[in-house]
Amino acid sequence: MKPNIVVLISGSGSNLQAIIDACKAEQIDATITGVISNKADAYGLTRAANAGIANRVLSHKDYETREAYDLALIDAIDAYNPDVIVLAGFMRILTPAFVDKFSGKLLNIHPSLLPKYQGLHTHQRAIDAGDTVHGVSVHFVTEELDGGPVILQAKVPVFPEDTAEDLAMRVHEQEHRIYPLVVKWFCQGRLKMVENQALLDNQALPASGYASEE
User: Band of the pLDDT at 145, cuts 50, 70, 90?
Assistant: First the structure.
């Protein structure tokens, strides 16, 4: 049986599309069984529908508390029998109960070289800080926001004339390259989280993830 992937989105779903394409090309030997969005107007839902993938909206506005929403989200995810849950631009802070339920199965992508610039507006923050190098990180999700162990990073240059939009485009290109790769590793059984540390082929990864010198 191929592993099952469930993808959570809030927006355009460009990383979802990269993973759909990698599955279709058999670069990832897995099946995306469901896509869930907390926003009804997320274009990623159209991407899922176009690929024949089951999808649904679970709006956070229908729940009074973050905890109540996450409990409903757990049920929605479980219906797709996931082996891995991929957060692809899912703009929600997850509750401890949710993270604990899926511990070791939750992957996220964050547009910075973690631990730098956790949270929002990462591209502008990198520019404001005068950084010459910026990038993106794929990491396991823990209760600490954007604080789980890093699996893989990709770096991009920051030029003096860059706007946040310029930098975002450069980072997006790398996101679409490294996220499918990490999902592939997980689905092959090569990647796991043990005691809050990322392991690839049973080797502990450094704080900045695999191949951090490249």
Answer: confident
